[in-house]
Every structure is written in C-alpha cells, then in structure tokens.
C-alpha cells in the first residue's frame, strides 16, 4: 500500500473511532442525566390496568388456596384485596377511555403456591407499586397535566400502602401460627378500593365515599 493510501486509510479509521466515542459519550450522558425514554400517562394507565387486573384474579386464586389450607382469615384478606384491585382496574380503564384510548382484553398470568409464598409474593408486588410504580406514574401524569390520571393513580397508591400493612401482619401471624388477631371481615370502598378491617369509618378517608356503599367481605 502506498504512503498516500496509508494516510487515507488511517484517517478513515480515526474518524470512525471518533464517531464511536462520540456516540458512547452521548448515550452515557443521556443515561446519566435521566433523559432515558419513559412511557407517557397513556402507556402507564395500560400498564396499571394490566397489573391490577392480574392482581385481582391472582388474589382471588390465592383466597381459594388459603381456604383449602384452612386459613380462612387470610382467605378473607385476599378476597378483599381482589375486590380492591378490581376497583383500581375499573377506575384506570375509565380514565383511559376519557383520554380517548382503550386496552384490549387482559389475560392474567400467575402461579398459585402455598399461602405463605402467596403472601410473600403479594407483599413484594405491593411494595413495588408503593415504592416505585405509582409514584413514577403520578409524577408523569402531573407533568402531562392529566389530573384524572393523577387521581386514579393516587387512589391506588394510597390503598396499596394499606394492603402492604395487611400482608405484613398476615405473614407475621402465619409465622407465629396465630391468626386470631387478623380481621374476620373487611369492607372495600367501591370508588377508590380503600380496604378496611371490619365495617370501616362513616366515610372513606381517601375519596370520601359513604360507609353504606362499601362492599362487605365476610
């Protein structure tokens, strides 16, 4: 290869390497500055609908398993949570429709294990929603000025925190083989899904719905 050809070839290689470096720096910069592509509120609503629909079906199946294991009070908890998650899915779907979009049929996929394992899995799912998913969804909806989405996400967020506490208490009771302090009935708000041990207060503390409208699980 002639000297001139060496120079041309070397220059091309140098330009190619510089381009690769520039691209790598750009990507790293975007990642580091939080400029990663994020789903919008429409996509988040669809994700939430899928998650809540699946959770509702899953908790209903977990309730059946708990009954088989003679853990009736834990079965009641799962039944109440199933109703609450169905309420969230319904509310999210209505908001999505109001924004001019829709979602196809959701086919829940999950595995039923022992009640102890089911409780642990449920707690893990609720924790993810409380610590990460719903706070992110609420933030994005506020940025996009989609107030109804903020409301429905916040309803779910507040209720999942309550479910977290119920599941932790149930796991602790099961570990101690003493379920007598777990509730023997629940009430679920049909507007926001708020879940109460027993009859609940005169009005829902999250959305204000009257006790008379609560769904009774016993």
Topology of helices and strands:
Elements: H1 3-32, H2 41-68, H3 72-98, H4 115-143, H5 147-175, E1 186-188, E2 195-197, E3 215-217
Antiparallel strand pairs: 1-2, 1-3
Helix pairs in contact: 2-3, 2-4, 3-5, 4-5
Explain how this protein is built.
With 218 residues, the protein is mostly helical. It folds into 2 domains: 1-37; 41-217, Ferritin. Helix content is 66%, strand content 4%. The chain has helices at 3-32, 41-68, 72-98, 115-143, 147-175, and strands at residues 186-188, 195-197, 215-217. Strands 2-1-3 form a 3-stranded antiparallel beta sheet. A hairpin with a 6-residue loop joins strand 1 (186-188) and strand 2 (195-197). Helix 2 (41-68) runs antiparallel to helix 3 (72-98), helix 2 (41-68) packs antiparallel against helix 4 (115-143) and helix 4 runs antiparallel to helix 5 (147-175). Residues 1-38 have low confidence and may be disordered.
CATH class of the largest domain: Mainly Alpha
Query: What portion of the residues fall into strands of 2 or more residues?
Result: under 5%
For this structure, the quaternary state is single chain
Question: Biggest sheet, in brief?
Answer: 3 strands, antiparallel
SSE arrangement, N to C:
HHHHHEEE
Number of helices: 5
Shape: globular
The assigned structural class equals: mainly alpha
Average of per-residue pLDDT values: 87
- Write the CATH homologous superfamily of the largest domain: Ferritin, core subunit, four-helix bundle
Give the beta-strand count. Answer: 3
**CATH architecture identity of the largest domain:** Up-down Bundle
Low-confidence stretches: 1-38
Supply Rg: 25 Å
How many separate structural domains? 2
Strand order, biggest sheet?
A: 2-1-3
